[in-house]
Every structure is written in C-alpha cells, then in structure tokens.
C-alpha cells in the first residue's frame, strides 16, 4: 500500500530548563496515546515571563502519525 | 453602563523586536533578551521567538542568536491601588543621571513628581569612563617600537570596573529611594548618554526626560548638547536639573 493518510496534531510542551526539554515533554506526552510517531516538528517557540525573568520555555510541536482507518 | 467605571485596565502594547546573542545557548540568549526588556517594563508577560540562527567561525558555532518579539505596555492606564476603584493614569519619567546621583537633587524631584500624581520613574545611569579606561582607549605608545600596545583584556577589565562602580552608586541610591520601590526601575548603561537614552526609548515610552548634570562648563553632557539633541530626536519634553549652590 503506497498511499497513506496521516493525522496531524499540535501540542505545546513546557520546561523551565530549555526548549529541547519542552519539545521532549510534548513528544513524550503524545507517545503515551499515539503509536508510530516519526517526526515532531517545532513550529513555534516562546517563553513565559515572571517578574522580569524567563519562567518557562515553551515549544509548540506538530506531530504526524499514520491514520489508522482500517484493521491490518 | 456608565456606573461601571472600568476598574480593570485595558492595556495597549507596542511590539518590540530584540536580537540577543549568547556564547552558551539560545535559552541563555532568551534570558538575556528578556532581562534587558524587563528593565524598563516590569510587567512583561511573554516573548515569542521569531528567528534563530548561529554565528559560525572556523567551522564552529561561536554564538547563538535569537530574534524575539516582546509586547510592551505603552499606555498609561494602571489598576487603582484601591481595589474596585476606576483605573488611574500615570505619568512616566525618565531620569538620566550619573555624577549627580549622590545628592538630594533626584530624591527631591522624585518626591515632588510622585506627590503631584500617579507616576513611574526609570533611572538611567550611563557608566562614565575612568581615567584608566580613557588612557587605555587612547592607547599607550611603546617607547621601543612606537606602536600602541594595549592588551584587550586590560581594557575589558577597566570597563568592567567602570560598570561595577556605576552599579554600586545606583544601588546606594535605590536603597535611599526604597519608599518608591514600587514605581522606580533603574539600570546602568554604556558611557554614551545619547545612545543609552535611544535604547531605552526603543523599548519603552516616557512623558518627560529629566537630565541631571553638573552645571555649565563642568558638564560633559551639556558640552555635547545632550538636552536639545534628545528633545529633537524623541519629541519628549526635556528638563535639565543641577545640584544647588554651585
């Protein structure tokens, strides 16, 4: 079967340490319910600020996974 | 519903773009950029990454660079100190001072302005260059070769000392004004007062700029015509104040 359909979801992960950790957190969370994740694309990064200092690094991650429409 | 005078401010923001770099990581660059923007804007909520890149030298990443966008509140509406009461309008003052920081001049001015109505102050201290720094910058001629020899580390050290001295003066000063801590922000900037003001005006806005300096010929700032240059460049009223009895 060469034709496939994919689902796309977006998640936002956060970390007090780095955007890498924020991304990993989002992927880890997604992996709990989704199978066969291949690539997670970081589409947006920002920070939240508390009292003039960076509080959290946030990564918005776009994940795609194969649409599971039929029983194989 | 006119009886419901708005008790919650409805802020207006200006989006400020920052470019910050770090030798360590993009995260470090983000922290530095945020700290810089927060100096004049204590209530920042967040910053968005617009672009990331690296500077490469000899095939290695030498700096991580980040372009950030920060929303800075520019209107003058603030919550009322008394909960539930209508919002208040503040006036924002930028005070530029260095040598005159120690006297009664600026505390008196802050007291007076704050008594006149809701106010916010930002104190900008351009770090002046010590004799040592000036000497190093002019360069020292080596008697044997005639070439000027200045170790870059020596100059960097001298600059660090200038900054530390200014930080210390500022700390002493803000301690004395602790009654106004809620409405006072401050920072030490580079040697050039005009450049320092321009940087602050990019990431904030003020209703009046107060330049505090020594009188007449003693003032390097007046010699460089700082007050009228600032007034022309930023279209904000400029007031010059001097210590009394000179």
Structure report:
The complex is a heterodimer of chains A (72) and B (246). With 72 residues, chain A is of the alpha+beta class. Chain A has one helix at residues 19-33, and strands at residues 6-15, 40-50, 53-66. In chain A, a hairpin with a 2-residue loop joins β2 (40-50) and β3. The N and C termini of chain A lie close together (11 Å). Chain B is built from 7 helices and 10 strands. In chain B, the strands form 3 sheets. In chain B, strands 8-7-6-9-10 form a 5-stranded parallel sheet, sandwiched between helices. In chain B, β2 (46-57) and β3 (60-73) form a beta hairpin. Chain B starts with 12 loop residues before the first strand and ends in a 5-residue tail after the last strand. The relative contact order of chain B is 0.14. At the A-B interface, β2 and β3 of A face α1 and β2 of B. β2 of chain A pairs antiparallel with β2 of chain B, so a sheet runs across the interface.
